[in-house]
Amino acid sequence: MPNPRLAGRYAKSLVDLALERGQLEEVYSDMLWLQQACNTSRDFLSLLRSPVIKADKKLAIVEGIAAGRLTELTAGFLRLTINKGRESNLPEIIAAFVQQYKDHKGIHTVKLTTAVAASDALKEQIISVVQEQTALRNIELEAEVDETIIGGFKLEIGDSLIDASVLYDLNKIRTQFLKNDFVFNIR
How large is the average pLDDT for residues 141-165? Predict the structure, then answer.
């Protein structure tokens, strides 16, 4: 069951400890690797969430997978979460850690959705326009392809959405036609 409060607390503790030990960048790299493992391996996620597999077996498997790849601080954190029975919350904790890292570094995520893959030049141009139009300086652009928008783009900046997609325009036109009694009654 999702528990964002718990994830935030565990993530904050890890961020604070990594800052104290001067290993924030290394732990961030480890967390990105673990996030990738959670996102790409259904088996790894099933292992973490399985109530049937005992904690000591989970610990042995996770340590075997992560051996030599993770810093001692991250490995210790994984042991702690498994020993406390919080391994099912690990994907949430990782996401919360990544977000807190970005907040600490002042990195803002901007999400670009296009119908076809955006070129690197276009991505750079969008970053520069966002920097000019907002107070955001340190921007990380996440590009996504969604063919259903037909053309144009969607740009998410924090809680704001700029929808300049063809699909949005078509839906607006459809709504206007449905509201227009004259056109609606012609049928």
Answer: 96
